[in-house]
Amino acid sequence: MRLPLVERSLLWFGLAVVVVLPIFYDGYTIYEFGKILMYALAVLGLNILTGFNGQFSLGHSAFFAVGAYTTAILMEQLGVPYWATIPLAAAVSFTAGFLFGLPALRLEGLFLALATFALAIATPQILKYDGISHLTGGVQGIVLATPYPPAWVDSIAVAVSGEALSVDRWKYIFTAIVVVIMFVLAQNLIRSRTGRAFIAIRDNPLSAKTMGINNAIFKSACFGVSAMYTGVAGSLFAIMDEYLAPESFTFAEAIKFLVGGVVGGIASLFGAVFGGAFVLYVPNFSDTIARLLENWIANPQGLSWTVYGLFLIFAVYVMPMGATGLIQILVRKIGVRR
Question: Any transmembrane segments, and where (predicted)?
Fold first, then answer.
């Protein structure tokens, strides 16, 4: 399956922007851009499962936690360098997703959503369990070491710009490298025979089975791949924030991923980037507007969530196919007028 020209162009434009950003920004701004990329990767994981395979999940915050705590435990308990924890977190997350996907094969639609919802609700409580608190830190969480750039990277930075890289700028560069690699792999996956099998199962499971596709294996594999992407995002989250606690992986995080996927475009790679920006910036923007309205509202409690809900309704109404779908429609209309 070849991606639409518009989406391929947006992806390459996005990659160019990712490369250029560290030149102009540093500090908290570049940290926020890194968070967008991290959320984009988590949303992409859900998009692979829901958009390209037709399985619905409300529990991807659990796999986000698996990746994050794998990185944290490897760093703090075993002294593994932060960069080396990424592939290990990916492997653990893939295994967790694949194993969860096997029994979930008996469930579809709302029943699968309910099972994944239960997983999301249970995860923070499991992380607080005293029996594993020596690994997870329990309710206190885990404080991680700062991910300083390697010496050779600093040497290159000094030679090029005359100054060493700041930690925030290096976090962004490291996150961008991982995210770009994962997006390229996702594009190749969707275009491969495996990706076409995922899509065939989504479109018509019976026809896919008739064509010789093993629905059970491919659906479980897709669950594993989806969990792997979200787990790698969780690993980057741990490295960027340098602190983990069970409250970071509540059901609200799973809803964030779902919102990002729907607003960006549920079967779109570029849409994951737009969704990542939406889930990071729109809540903050809603808080700002809510503070401005507090002087005119008698009971401002919960006003921020009201504003956020209105933004979400507006986005879904204006972009029923997500941001990518809206861009494709506009491009087609411009082409017709010409």
Answer: 9-25, 31-49, 81-102, 109-127, 172-190, 257-282, 302-331
Under the banding of pLDDT at 50, 70 and 90, the label for residue 307 is confident
Q: How far is CA 41 from CA 178, 181, 221, in A?
A: 9, 11, 18
DSSP code for 81: -
pTM (predicted TM-score): 0.90
Q: Per-residue pLDDT tens for 63-119?
A: 999 999 999 999 999 999 999 999 999 999 999 999 988 877 777 777 888 889 999
State the Cα–Cα distance between residues 251 and 247, nearest whole angstrom.
10
Long-range pairs for 101-107 at CB < 8 Å and ≥24 separation? 101/219, 101/220, 101/221, 101/222, 101/223, 101/224, 102/220, 104/55, 104/223, 105/216, 105/219, 105/220
Minimum mean pLDDT range among 34-43, 238-247, 310-319 = 310-319
Rounded to the nearest angstrom, the gap between the alpha carbon of residue 326 and the centroid of all alpha carbons in its chain is 21
Distance CA 27, CA 49 (A): 34
Query: What is the rounded distance in angstroms from the CA atom of residue 310 to the CA atom of residue 15?
Result: 31
The Cβ of residue 287 has, within 10 Å, a number of other Cβ atoms equal to 15
Which one-letter amino acid corresponds to residue 204? N
Structure tokens at 183: 């997006």
CB 154 within 8 A of CB 165: yes
Say if residues 201 and 54 touch (Cβ distance below 8 Å).
yes
